[in-house]
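In response to the reviewer comment on reproducibility (Comment 2.3), we provide here a single inverse folding case reported in full, input and output, so that an independent group could reproduce the run without further information from us. The structure tokens appear first.
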């Protein structure tokens, strides 16, 4: 079952787009939107491989299904409310909004996305944490297309994605230069891509944050500037535990990556708050 808030907003977006489109295009977009939303609505939060494949097909159609809003239009639509929710957290950390630089830390095992911002002296301070509602895969890096793994490493945001089938999206630059070099050394090809931090509840290699959270994160990235956002994706909180991976089954470079990730995590002022998970939106029950 699809998130009702997402469904309603997607339909509203479609209506706005249709008001600017020729009649024939409007009807085609409306039909495709209805079809895609119906497909997603019939799927449970935890899907089987055929259902995952169906979701992928719907995501592939998203440029044709969605209402082709620009980044500026989506920020105008969600910015005021998102900033009103964000600014108290920055005020509590004594950092002016928007900050000059933001770091987002994904802890896969803990299911958390933690936001840090630089103060006037350039030191990072923890701002807010979000529960990750939907993920896929296990501990360990993404190695190839279709493995459903969430990447691990250090990434940037090349762009915002205003027309995601999962409400809004923030793109990762996976595979980055380091991923490509490692793949070349391993003789791996078809590394996959299109990794997002997005809304809604489900994920196939991305982070599904729910719609309220993604609106805040999306607006924050827009206000700070994509080039000023760093993304760190770790298998777990490497400061306090070992990753649940069998290193013999992993590439030889993985221990060094985890060493670098552990050093980065130790430099972040991480204070995990149990309330983040306690306030996690509940996934809708699946329909038979």
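Designed residues, in position order:
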């Amino acid at each position: 079952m699809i998130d009702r808030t997402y469904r309603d907003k997607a339909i509203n977006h479609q209506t706005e787009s249709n008001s600017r489109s020729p009649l024939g295009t409007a009807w085609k977009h409306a039909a495709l939107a209805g079809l895609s939303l119906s497909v997603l609505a019939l799927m449970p939060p935890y899907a089987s491989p055929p259902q995952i494949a169906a979701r992928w097909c719907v995501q592939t159609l998203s440029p044709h299904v969605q209402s082709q809003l620009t980044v500026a239009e989506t920020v105008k639509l969600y910015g005021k409310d998102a900033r009103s929710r964000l600014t108290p957290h920055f005020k509590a950390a004594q950092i002016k909004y928007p900050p000059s630089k933001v770091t987002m830390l994904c802890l896969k095992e803990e299911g958390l996305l933690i936001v840090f911002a630089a103060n006037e002296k350039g030191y990072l301070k923890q701002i807010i944490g979000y529960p990750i509602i939907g993920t896929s895969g296990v501990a360990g890096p993404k190695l190839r297309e279709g493995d459903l793994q969430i990447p691990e490493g250090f990434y940037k945001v090349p762009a915002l994605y205003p027309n995601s089938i999962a409400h809004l999206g923030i793109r990762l630059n996976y595979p980055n230069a380091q991923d490509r070099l490692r793949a070349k050394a391993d003789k791996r090809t078809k590394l996959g891509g299109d990794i997002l931090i997005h809304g809604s509840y489900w994920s196939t290699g991305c982070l599904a944050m729910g719609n309220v959270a993604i609106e805040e994160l999306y607006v924050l990235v827009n206000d700070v500037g994509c080039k000023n956002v760093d993304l760190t994706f770790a298998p777990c909180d490497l400061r306090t535990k070992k990753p649940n991976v069998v290193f013999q089954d992993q590439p030889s470079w993985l221990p060094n990556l985890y060493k670098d990730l552990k050093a980065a995590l130790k430099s972040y002022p991480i204070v995990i708050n149990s309330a983040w998970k306690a306030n996690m939106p509940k996934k809708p029950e699946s329909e038979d």
